[in-house]
Amino acid sequence: HTACPSLCSAVRHRRWPHLERMPNADSLGWAPTAPPPCAFAGHDPEQEIDLKPESSEEATHRWTVTLGILGIAATMVSGELLKRRGIFRIPEAVIGLLVGVAAGGLSEMFESQTMAEDESFDDEFFMVWLLPPIIFAAGYNMNVPAFFDNLGPTMLLAFGGTVLSAAVVGACVYLAGQLGLAYRLSLLASFFFGSLISATDPVTVLAIFKVIGVRDDIFAVIFGESVLNDAVAIVLARTILSFNTPDADISLLTCLQAATVFCSIFLGSMLIGSLGGTLSALLFKGLGLARVDDKVPLEAALCFAFPWSCYYAAEALELSGIVAILFCGIAMATYARPNLSRHARTLTTELFETLAAIAEAFVFNYLGMAFFTFPILSGGQQSPAGGTVWRLALVTMLACFVGRLHAFLLLPLTNALRMRSARRTARELVAAAESDAQHRATSYLEAAQRSLLSTAHAFVVWFSGLRGGVAFAIAAAAYGDHAFSQCGDEGEPRPCDPAVEISPDLAILQATLLIAVFTIVFFGGAIKDVSLACDVLAKPAAEAAEEASSTSSGGLAATAAPGKGLPRTRSMRARWLHINERYIMPQLTVDGAGGGRAGGRLGDAELPSRCTSNCGLLAAQGHAGWATEMVPTKAREGGALCSTLPADAGAGGEGSPAPGGACARGSDGHPPKEHALAIASRLLESDDDSGRDASRGGRRSLGGSDDGLSVEHQRV
Hints:
By secondary structure, the protein is mostly helical. It is 62% helix and 1% strand. The protein has helices at 5-13, 56-84, 92-109, 113-119, 123-141, 144-149, 151-178, 187-197, 202-212, 216-242, 252-287, 296-316, 321-336, 342-373, 390-403, 406-431, 437-450, 455-463, 469-480, 504-533, 541-551, 572-588, 614-620, 627-630, 672-685, 688-696, 711-715; strands spanning 486-487, 494-495. Helix 2 packs across helix 14.
């Protein structure tokens, strides 16, 4: 085969020399007098076999990989030791940055160009291999009811807030450059910088909030904003770069077209992710693997297929893979996870969390290495000729503080919309002309009032605007593509002289990394104190149970009785819950009950009928305010759950859980303590506790009784 001499060497290397002259050589066009195909043109096939010892570059590459793996392990071990000692001012993200800086310093110390190239930040590697597992694990294990309960403020912050922040930062950076206060960027480059730096990093938010443990509603708002505004920032950056051509036409029409493209990207990505999660639910329901022994590995393997397929499908269609894989995780948690076996649910939850933890540690190591693998600081191998743009970083950081003030404008707007909807529902309750309509309407308004986000909550949202890998990845991609490589005035651009000046894309890259490191170190280290001062930390399970039991008669649970529920005709949320419960759940899940924390209802067997003690357990599991949707019909028969009991419940009469009543002994005959433990065990088996712990960094099991329950569940 004269065209491929390497094949001949492979044949000889495999000890098949008789194949060098094939019997059908004539039919292949080789003349009988032609030389053997492996010896044509004086070629020596033995040269194709590389038997030399590996070069120093290959050895250096392997040592770099080893160093990276050890860096991930060192980050995770150091973070765990700090958690055990109660040191929250140095989060694991900061440890990861320091480890990355140390790894980059080694390449600088040995002056190894190979190691520096291996450690350099690759934006494509970050967006394809590191970010997807983090986002999917968060969606798969998040508190879905809390996410959708706070979808209004989340969408306002992610869309309106990001656009406002990008405009404010871009204008401030441009004006500062024109006044000579910072590095001068063109108008287009300024707004490009404003769009990418307005992306709050979900990796950083997740890494810190999971450690300190914040309230579910605050976590849902901040995490949802950080994930969704990444898509906004990426689309804004792409749109601005599309105008970075000499013949670009910037007009109102083109801006409207860009807005239309953005909406289609988001909706298309959400549709792809939801479709992937729905198909996974149908597959698991059809296969029935949960009823077959020893199929746990197959269930876990199939769980990997759908999220990454959705991600790459969205990217192939030039949509947002981040949004697609997030909604795929939410859909799989809601519809697919209930179709898995108990062991498969536990395995997938822990496995996705493990991959996310490894990716998070590597992201921060990656950012630390970038100080030496990119021309950020002066004095090293990658030293920038024109120095470091410290003033641009300072001006931009101050502009980001101003741009984040939209939280104080948009959250009150969502509160007003919530109260308007609550008042309308209360009026409909009163119009029902039932005996307790006025009391139920008042209770509903009080519950709605308690769910509002206060000024302190808005301050936490403002303070949590941490920047990180996503913003730096966008900046690194622009730097690698030489998106803004022209210097000089806007009317007379000229090529930058790398020997004496910094190009605009390098200035953006430097400022982005400096801002990311500053917000992670200082804001990330102080977020625990800020959360404590603003009272947004999650309460212990026992305290939450006691509070929910004492307030249950005046909350949303009072409207949970059948026939006395909230009107379905006016509330979009109530309509969706009705459709989901009546039509979607029975089609997609095995028992039609859904996935508990993932947005479905607990099965009727999960809770005993007419048992007031379950209210505290529901609150401890995070179901406070979801009594109507989460508690089965059988548990609500005969009156409002958590408030009254039917007359035949016990000797104490109606509303009195007297000894011998349904609340004194459960439906299965166990005493109250054992009954509560049995319910907690069932909830644990359905991954309710693991999903809650994973979504907000809740407290893991601290040991316990022979039942394997944690101390907190024993208290419940």
